[in-house]
Specification:
The chain has one domain: Alpha-Beta Barrel (TIM Barrel), CATH 3.20.20.80. It is an alpha/beta fold. Helix content is 41%, strand content 14%. It catalyses: Hydrolysis of terminal, non-reducing beta-D-glucosyl residues with release of beta-D-glucose.
């Protein structure tokens, strides 16, 4: 049996209930994955435009030049969003569309697109939730050193100020970075994402400068907002780390995994310090974080909300399958251990109960209000003869994870919203267009949009939640 493609349930689950009237419901996207129009109206190349041209970097040699053509179909897409009944749309701004080259003045035509998008959303009663950076660094800044270079953090704060100056009168909810772990580790340590570099020391410099960029941008936004409403946050991709056995080696592996994936980001953001054990682990590999006086205070600029992107928890071991020590290879490393669990088309285990565990842990250790800013799954959808898209596996995934949020709230966790990833099928980074996360199907030949059954279920869940609390 192929668990990655076999529906997890035969019957569509009932809508999830038990969430309050002020709970925020949304869908999410990112600029490079949907916009297209890669060379229009003054936009310059990002690191993803460049990376997609590297032979073998992206499946099928695909790219985001057109993607979902959202740049030209935006009003149609906003109508679709509003029809789902969500109250919030999380989207990212394209840095090279707003500030071509990553330096200098703002590009009016780029800003005008986002002003039209925001006005369309507001006119349909949907709140805009902006992410400033979802991985599309202007290529010129990468040529100057990228995120391992301190100057990129300064440039990011400048870009954030330009964006807020233009859009701050329309938007209250601002997220600085999406998933800095992915930017640093997949982009600079493992070479799997743009810019495709493989240097552990550069990756750790990128971690620090991404966080510094967040802190400087957050401070700039707070100063610019003054007394105007502002809900400021950052979004991290977070999971759980479970040891394969009770051995000291496996417990140590989980300490390292949790340290590199969670505490390395949240400790400086909330407590203005890096975790001492991870700093020591890195030092043993002759890697230091390039911290200067004042950096940690800037990084710890107070947050109003923590965005949590959750896709799976994982099990880890500290030894190879034959019990030998792991080769550190320049970073603290662990071995992921597969479990006998259902999986998505990404070959990711489906672990909704671990979302509850994660949220409880975040409340205990960091005390920030949270919103699930991404949660969803890729499956191999098939269009039925009548044109519908039955996706019971995705519907079950959403139902189980929303139920996990309900369970976390029952334990006192201040989780305030849930955004499904993603609104529509889109360019899935190094997988090209091979993986479909959307609750809306996109026919890439015609750009036609079709609500999948999961979208209809999500719409009904939102409607019933509001009816329950009316």
């Amino acid at each position: 049996m192929n668990l990655a493609t076999t529906p997890q349930r035969i019957l569509v689950p009932a809508p999830v209930r038990g969430l309050p009237a002020d709970f925020r419901w949304g869908v999410a996207t990112s600029s490079y994955q949907i916009e297209g129009a890669a060379a229009e109206d003054g936009r310059t190349p990002s690191i993803w435009d460049t990376f997609c041209r590297v032979p073998g970097a992206v499946e099928g040699g695909e790219h985001g030049d057109m993607a979902c053509d959202h740049y030209h179909r935006m009003p149609e897409d906003v109508e679709l969003i509003a029809g789902l009944g969500v109250d919030t749309y999380r989207f990212s701004l394209a840095w090279p569309r707003i500030q071509p080259g990553g330096r200098g003045p703002a590009n009016r035509k780029g800003l005008d697109f986002y002003k039209r998008l925001i006005d369309e959303l507001s006119g349909r009663g949907v709140t805009p939730w902006i992410t400033l950076y979802h991985w599309d660094l202007p290529q010129e800044l990468e040529d100057a050193g990228g995120w391992p270079a301190r100057d990129t953090a300064l440039r990011f704060a400048e870009y954030a100020s330009l964006a807020y100056e233009a859009l701050g009168d329309r938007v209250e909810h601002w997220t600085t970075l999406n998933e800095p772990w992915c930017s640093a580790m997949l982009g600079y340590a493992y070479g799997l994402h743009a810019p495709g570099r493989r240097d552990p020391a550069d990756a750790m410099a990128a971690v620090h400068h991404l966080l510094l960029g967040h802190g400087l941008a957050a401070g700039a936004l707070r100063d610019a907002a003054g007394d105007n409403p502002l809900e400021l946050g950052i979004t991290l991709n977070l999971g759980t780390a479970t040891p394969e056995t009770g051995s000291e080696a496996d417990r140590e592996a989980c300490r390292r995994a949790d340290g590199m994936g969670t505490r390395l980001y949240l400790d400086p953001l909330v407590h203005a310090r890096y975790p001492e054990d991870i700093v020591a682990d890195l030092a043993a590999q002759h890697i230091e974080l390039p911290v200067r006086d004042g950096d940690l205070a800037a990084i710890a600029t107070p947050l109003d909300v923590l965005g949590v992107n959750f896709y799976r928890g994982m099990q880890f071991s500290g030894v190879t399958e034959d019990g030998s020590p792991l080769d550190a290879e320049g970073l603290p490393v662990v071995r992921a251990v597969d479990r006998d669990l259902p999986r998505t088309a990404m070959d990711w285990e489906i672990t909704p109960a671990e979302l509850t565990d994660l949220l409880v842990r975040l409340e205990r250790d960091y005390g920030l209000p949270t919103v699930i800013t991404e949660n969803g799954a890729a499956f191999d959808d098939t269009v039925a003869a009548d044109g519908s898209v039955p996706d019971a596996d995705r519907t079950a995934y959403l139902a189980d994870h929303i139920a996990a949020v309900v369970a976390a709230r029952a334990q006192g966790v201040d989780v305030r919203g849930y955004f499904a990833w993603s609104l529509m099928d889109n360019f899935e980074w190094a997988y090209g267009y091979a993986k479909r996360f959307g609750i809306v199907r996109v026919d890439y030949d015609t750009q036609a949009r079709t609500l999948k059954d999961s979208a209809k279920w999500y719409r009904d869940t939102i409607r019933l939640t509001r009816d329950d609390t009316a």
